[in-house]
Amino acid sequence: MSTLLIRNASYLVTMDDHRREITGGGLFVRDGFIEQVGPSADLPEQADEVLDLKDHIVLPGLINTHHHFYQTLTRAVPAAQDANLFNWLKTLYPIWARMTPEDIYISTQTALAELALSGCTTASDHLYLFPNGSKLDDEIAAAREVGLRIHASRGSMSLGESKGGLPPDQVVDSEETILKDSVRLIERYHNPNPGSMVQIVLAPCSPFSVTGELMQQSAVLARSYGVHLHTHLAETQDEESYCLEKFGYRPVAYMQSLGWVGEDVWFAHSVHINSEEIEVYAKEGCGVAHCPSSNMRLASGVAPLWEYLRAGVKVGLGVDGSASNDGSHMLAEARQALLLARLRAGLLGASLSSTSAPPILAAREALELATRGGAAVLGRNDIGSLEPGKCADFIAIDLRKLGYAGALHDPVAALIFCHPQNVDWNVVHGKIIIRNGELLTLDLPVHIEKHNRASRKIING
């Protein structure tokens, strides 16, 4: 048995049901789980390791609900810089088709290193193409080395261009292969228990890249094993037009027709959604991965965040792929969510009466999306807040940084309003991943060189 004591944090943000913020607070951890939370004077005095975090703010580890790790290899590709989603995909599909298992491994570690340094302790990734022998196993192995929790989505594309889909035929798989591999991965890796480091998700890519039959069979399979379902939905107006033309439904109604609604389902983006569809999400318990930076980068639109929250829809944050965001910084994404929500509120307020316009999003609400919100979307009740019985997943930031000078009257809000900083400590299940700003699980200079070589190789062909 191992114990860890955190004490003397200037501010400890619990995100518990009472949203307690404790000055001079701390945590006592045993074998990866929190036993006590409170003022440092109320905690045990000894542990196997004791961290004095004076001048630091401590908060729950941030939770990323949507990503594509492999896209760190194709950031800022010139031909895709100014494209909308469909053209962006058509530009990048042939490049991604050159990836190897080693590329998946390398890119996963790059994305997770960035996420860890930005305060993330749990990340959900959506890997939906498997060229040249690549497998989801490559990603899971890489994540194990970095040390973050992962929800590894077995994505899929089965509807190639020759059958009316968007992706080229060279990057799609047969539905038989997809379902067989899904069973293999669940049985080998999925751990539903509290504190699990790996969970498997079934995630057909999108309505324009898989058949309805695969969506239905994936849902049946997922529910037989008790795993969650995930896909992109209602990201762009192009997708809406595609669904109406091909299926006779708007995207949400199409999902309903396939049995793809429920507490075990969450959708990435959900930008082009009307009020009736928001009520479907709320009634059925569907979650949303809100990806503000990616939606802005690809000119997809602005998700109705305020309406989701008002209706009681579960909402978490996703940095999305690093070729549509070009970064993987969770605190930056929380800040972007706040700014974009406020921009939308202002624009709606200009055309509606003041009583009809959405209220502005508060800094603590943005942090809640990145913690409690993400946990709810992923269906986990063991992470997202600092409470006895929950996983010891937490981060700490030194408040003596230049970027926080003049903001210490409200350091919690400063995390969002001020320029996003990297964290100084990142602890996952009681294990220190980042100590004094240094990632302990990866030799970053060596890794970055390796990553850039891999990127040049696939982009240059």
Explain the overall architecture:
It is a single chain. This protein has helices spanning 85-96, 101-117, 136-146, 175-189, 212-225, 237-247, 251-257, 275-284, 292-297, 305-311, 330-351, 363-378, 411-417, 444-460; strands at residues 3-13, 21-30, 33-39, 49-52, 56-60, 62-64, 120-127, 149-156, 198-204, 228-233, 265-269, 287-290, 314-317, 394-398, 425-428, 431-435, 438-439. With 461 residues, it is α/β, with parallel strands linked by helices. The protein folds into two domains: 3-61 and 385-439, Urease, subunit C, domain 1; 62-378, Metal-dependent hydrolases (TIM Barrel, Alpha-Beta Barrel), CATH 3.20.20.140. The strands form two sheets. Strands 1, 2, 3, 4, 5, 14, 15, 16 and 17 form a nine-stranded mixed β-sheet that branches. Helix 4 (175-189) packs parallel to helix 5 and helix 12 crosses helix 13 (411-417). The model has no long low-confidence stretch (mean pLDDT 96).
List the helices and strands and how they pair.
Elements: E1 3-13, E2 21-30, E3 33-39, E4 49-52, E5 56-60, E6 62-64, H1 85-96, H2 101-117, E7 120-127, H3 136-146, E8 149-156, H4 175-189, E9 198-204, H5 212-225, E10 228-233, H6 237-247, H7 251-257, E11 265-269, H8 275-284, E12 287-290, H9 292-297, H10 305-311, E13 314-317, H11 330-351, H12 363-378, E14 394-398, H13 411-417, E15 425-428, E16 431-435, E17 438-439, H14 444-460
Parallel strand pairs: 1-4, 1-5, 6-7, 7-8, 8-9, 9-10, 10-11, 11-12, 12-13
Antiparallel strand pairs: 1-2, 2-3, 5-14, 14-15, 15-16, 16-17
Helix pairs in contact: 2-3, 2-14, 4-5, 11-12, 12-13
